[in-house]
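agent: user wants the structure for histidine kinase from Corallococcus caeni. delegating to structure tool.
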Amino acid sequence: MTLRSRLLLAQVPLVVALLFLGATAVITLAHVGRAGQRVLEDNYRSVLATQRITEQLERMDSAALFIIAGERERGLAQQAAQRPPLETELGVQLGNITEPGEAEATQRLRAAWVKYREEFDAFLQERDAEAARTRYFASLSPAFQEAKAAASSILALNQDAMVRKNDQLRHQSERVNTLMVLAVLAALGFGLFFTTSLVQRALRPVSVLSQAVRRLGQGDVEARAVVEGRDEIAQLARDFNTMAERLGQYRKSSLGELLQAQAVSQAAIDSLPDPVLVLGADGGLLNVNAAAEEVLRLRLDDGGDALGRVEPEVRAVLERVRAHVVGGRGAYQPRGYEEAVRVEASPEGGRWLLPRGSPVHGETGDVVGATLILQDVTRLRRFDELKNDLVATVAHEFRTPLTSLRMAIHLVAEGVVGQVTEKQADLLFAAREDCERLQGIVDDLLDLSRIQSGQLQLDVREVRTEELVEHALAAQRTLAEDRGVRLSQSLSPDVETVRVDPDRLHLVLGNLVGNGVKHTPQDGAVSVHVSRDGAHVRFEVRDTGEGIPAQEQARIFEKFYRAPGAPAGGAGLGLSIARDIVQAHGGELGVVSTPGQGSTFWFTLPQPAEA
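agent: tool returned. relaying tokens verbatim.
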């Protein structure tokens, strides 16, 4: 006999018990249901009818009081509306006599209603208010009380019957519950006893196979399952034995190579001085090297949320890089040293780690994880800080003598210290322009130094958008007129004011407008557009110049970068400083450009809806 047949046979006692239990339940529940239905059919309709009759009698009595109070039309309408439904409900009660004494009570109600109706008709014949009041209290009100009492007696009779039948039904339900409990226990005991016996006999070979599987899971590749027979479990045992034998052969031939390859790969990543982490698609820690264990204090055998033990700032960076890689956006490359995160790794001081990420692909080519490398840029960052300090110091030292030089050239050019020739004036004019250009470079260097040292303080306040744009255009209007470039502006009506640091925004807008004028040929145009973009305000500076090649667009915001063919006179810091100021406001700055079709520099600033 096959295992399938044995298991089906083992279910027969349980099926018989369930059939017996189901038949018992159907019979008893049907009996209880009929008893409950009789309560509804016999008494509930009478209760509902007498309640409605009482309500309609009370409304007719209210109508009589309206007539006495002088509102005769209202009373006549109300009493006329109550008579048809009252007759209908009385007919319902006459057709639903179910309890002893209910027929007599119903006849009394009918007689009382006929009397009350006649008294009400006589009451309506009285035109004099005093006579109507006298008849109401003398005959109509007593007739109303009599009819109401008759209806109440029928209501009480049916309610008492419902209570009595409910008690009977409750006792019957208790008997049914007892019977059902006994039936369930009997069926359960019968079914469990025979089913358990048959199942144990059928599944005894499964226990033998389970023990063999457990031993194999513990590493005993010599485990075998000895099961006699020709059923499915016996066949499964033979297949298991074959698998165990082949697994033992495979382990003997390949385990050493696998362990050696794993040891070599772990030694390779452990040799790297920078922390390396391998994260799964769900953020779980899959592997770490020795540097990560030392610097981040991570242990692969900690289990659970291992990254939860990392400093919150570092954990946020790791999660951002992992999301970028796992999201299918390719490898993650940092944009600069500003993305480095500080880790307190040793008593000598903190270390600055720059994150990089690359995807880990599965067998089907899908991204199943991410490898994160935290490059130690502590020395490079310190060199960068030293460079910034040097630049700031040189720029600061240049400012004083440069101011004196500008003043001296200005005084000489203006003839304050004596008349100058035309050639001398030309030379002085060129020298003054060079001094102004040098002053701009010094100012840019000082601004850059403040930003990179974290000393940039924003004085944010509400400013009219038109004033910001007009200030930027006014500063470049003379240059634009000399070059034959038209300046214009377009402001959205829903952006009247913005909350910004006006001095810093003047610098950003002035730089963008000035660049547009310098790169736009004669008869070209530079325009400033301001509009709302969701929770942000968007500024755009559009020009009709030569445009920017795609390969240059990603680098124009780098410090000291100057595009090939750019006009002389700057240090390549303007756009870098503008980007840092916008980011300090919580916004973004970018460019959209096509060679030969001009450029659009844009930046967004977060603003409240009412700004």
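agent: one observation worth passing along. The longest helix spans residues 129-217.
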